[in-house]
Amino acid sequence: MRRKDPPSVWVVDDDAGIRSYLSDFLKSRSYSVLSFDSGEQVARQITSVGPPSLLLLDIRMPKVGGLEVLAQLDKMGSQIPSIVLSGVDQI
Question: Which of 51, 55, 58, 91 shows a CA-CA span of 20 to 30 A to 34?
């Protein structure tokens, strides 16, 4: 019987501390985790390695934020379950 690969989660946040915390937490729960410090990297990675099982996105990042990433994915026809995070309490 072939062993099933663990679900993959991509953590996308410009804050290194948050990326590290979320990545460590998810890895401790046996998820396969990739982390990125910008939204710009997401579309490139989907094209090269395929989509993740779940995407955790910071809503506010320099240049390309979480909502913009979701819009890009929609244009690509890629429907990935996503959770948008924010450390800003005014949103």
Answer: 91
What is the rounded CA–CA span in Å between residue 73 and residue 62? 18
Low-confidence ranges of the chain (pLDDT < 70): 1-3, 89-91
Per the structure, the complete domain to which residue 31 belongs is given by 8-85
Task: Work out the burial of residue 49: count CB atoms within 10 Å of its CB; fewer than 13 is exposed, 13-18 middle, 19 or more buried.
Answer: exposed
pLDDT tens digit sequence for 6-22: 999 999 999 999 999 99
Distance CA 31, CA 10 (A): 10
Q: How far apart are CA 1 and CA 53, in angstroms?
A: 22
Report if residue 2 sits inside a domain.
Answer: no
